[in-house]
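Whether sequence alone determines local backbone shape is best considered at the level of individual chains. For completeness, the protein is quoted in full, as a sequence line and a line of structure tokens:
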Amino acid sequence: MSRSPLIARTVPALRRAVDNLRKRKATIALVPTMGALHDGHVSLVRLARRRASRVVVSIFVNPTQFAPTEDFGAYPRTWKADLAKLAAEDVDIVWHPGAEAMYPEGFATRIVPEGPALAGLEDRFRPHFFAGVATVVGKLFTQCRPDVAIFGEKDFQQLRVVAQMARDLELGVKVIGSRTVRERDGLAMSSRNVYLSPQERQTATTLYRAMKESAGRIRAGEAVAPAMARGAAMITAAGFELDYFEVRHAATLAQVSSRNDGPLRILVAAKLGTTRLIDNIAV
């Protein structure tokens, strides 16, 4: 039978709860989220349970990673449904702070990452984004003091940025990536999928198909540039406004020119109607 997790809304309450777990020699896994939980998030929680004896899930829609033109106010918030999902997974603590707890009056410090944060992918279109992510994740790590933290691979550049930050700042947290969970037709699960109209939802699967076809061509020996050009054309022909469709080194996100340049990852970001979708796959 599932049990309700402890809900902490202030840093002192969270610290007391984490200290109580530590007194019992628990290992702790953190799953940072912005809520609107779906099966992809549930898969992160289940991986966290396999990697530690206790699980903390944070739910915080972080305003500092949204530009003024983006969807902070409209971002889906489904607290009751989220809590029910986490209770069903036997999560131990839900860290659910308000903005005043995360960014109290006078807050004046940011983490501004470089390295994979300046790869020319998401950062090219959302230059504010990774400073907001790094700052809030750095705070979550110091607040929750986990042994491991679980992030989905769908936000692949974000995963690389967070892992680099944890290493560089010696935060004592092992960052673990979890494979992207997809719908039956291949669309990556995302909280923003709810914005898609029925027609857009059908069209959205083009991203996954284009990545798979380009990856297959590269594996078969076709040169990287024409293989990727065909995939990009497929995406724009479907009606997307394409931000990027690129193949990069999977570890560093450096640009590559051939399949011999190392393990490769195809990454895409494109807008369909008013909804911006991102995805990636290994080559």
Observations:
- DSSP finds ten helices and nine strands in the chain.
- The two ends are 42 Å apart (CA to CA).
- The beta strands are 6-8, 28-33, 54-59, 93-95, 148-152, 174-178, 241-249, 264-272, 275-282.
